[in-house]
Amino acid sequence: MNRTLRRRDLLAGGLAYGLAGPSCSRRAGPPPRVSIIRAGTYEEDLTLKVLGILREHRIDVRGKRVVLKPNLVEFDPGRSINTHPAVVHAAFEAFRASGAAEVRIAEGPGHRRNTWELADAAGFPAAFRNFQSIFTDLNLDEVSRVALHRPFSRLSELYLPQTALGADLLVSLPKMKTHHWVGATLSMKNLFGLVPGSVYGWPKNVLHWAGIDECIADLHGVFPKHFCLVDGIVGMDGNGPIQGNQKTAGVLVAGDDAVAVDATCCRIMRLDPDKIGYLQLARSRSGTDLTNIRQIGESISSVQTAFELIPEWKALRLPATPGGLS
Amino acid sequence: MPELCGGVSTAELIASIGSAQNADGGWGYTGRSSWTEPTAFALLALSASGALSERSRQGFRWLARTERREGGWAPVPSVSESTWVTAPAVLALAETESAHNLQPAVDWLLRQTGEESTLVDRVRRVLLGTKMEVGEGTSGWPWLAGTAGWVMPTALTILALEKAQRRGHAAGTQKRVQQGREFLLARICDDGGWNYGASQALGYQAHSYPDTTGMALLALHGSSSPKVTAALAKAQEQVGLCRSAQTLCWLYMGLAAHGRRPSADTGNCRLDNPNLIDRALVLLARAAEQSRPSVWGAV
Lengths: 326, 299
Description:
By secondary structure, chain A is of the alpha/beta class.
């Protein structure tokens, strides 16, 4: 990978935004709801758990077109890099059982040109019947131009895949991981996989040069109402998102407010969401109050586990909170 | 040695590429609108297979009329910017006998460079106090203008410039091709092959991939560098682990560019759910196998 943008650059970019970025728009209404559901292994009945989450969040997909966006990055049998196919399969079955007219799985990996080879190595064809018929390689999809409204980054437009743009419900299915450039990669960072390699290359380096945190927040602005289901059963810590170590958290985290879901995941990982650049940018637009998230299921304190951090990100460490944050 | 990606005949691949051609003369990744890269690779593959028909030649005309004013190509005409796909477009159009003036495209390619090697970015890094990573002093090609140089677009552009040079569009190409080769040599990973970009990030060693290793070897044809010798050994190791046609084909052509053949069994290679690029690459690799590698110009 090219290390073209340093954390110091990112911090400089964040400061520039603070001085000149879009104005804050506060959201009225009830606090966002985020589910934390224990799941010890991938062998459990995850479909049942996802069905419970969809009921809890009153997700009505009857007759709708649902696109599931897992995180497929690389394959290394010794590392937990990608969203586990069992979680994606559970979501697939749960949305179908909930009456969705169509459920597709779609991803555009950032490094590997051969998406099928990666999906195969990660175990996806083996987990699904006729995987080829339900999968779209977003890197090679037809695209439409999307103008970015008041962007945080220096991009004014993005070409995005029609499969994602045409979905009635986009579901981000990330892996819970630390990330060496932005601190943590969760629901919102997972949206980078929507940016097509056919236009932007492998990796999508234009997003790095335009500001990673800023581009994450801009993509969130394009897809503000996607549903999130985070695979935190076995995540990754240390030098994520590829070269880190397996880290068991034993949870699924879900909700329809990506800022709240990602902030909750950060707290589970004992990372301070107030120090994650893209969360600050996105919440300045969405108005999500990170101090007022309604946790459903487990409390944060009951599942909290410190994800190891590389030295550059030690300042993210959140003190353990015996009383819980929920 | 069994045929590369056996089970699908060359005639079947040619027919499937032919039937995927759009009415406007181009090809798409998924069969709908025409895109530059699949059109270029379809034409290269058909040409390498001696299977260009009057209808398929409409693809050359599609490429010629979609060239942008600045000399490059956009990935798809609806995108308003020339990008890395200019290199495959030049590779394909160089198959035609002076039917298209390649000089504007060559000039556009010569103007592109990885942003990290520009004076502006070097000054920026000095001001920010960021140290230079290994290999960042060399000049490759980016996917998009204003971004860093990467192995794949650099390898494709080297091949395109060399091929254009042989078609008489030589002005200024030699120096930049040499710079591109230095870029590739500076980015060899410790394991002998190539990652997509740098050989390390944040102080951690990056590992290599077979497709990038194959492409880089192809662009470094004729090099006697000991690094290339080590990379060839890595490529042979990677062949045995290949699962997809696309990846194997790049390795295959990279080895062929140095007069080598895979020493490992390629029977694991599959052509499942192939897209246009997969099918085209199999034809190109088979052509290389039969010593008809002129499409790359480098082999």
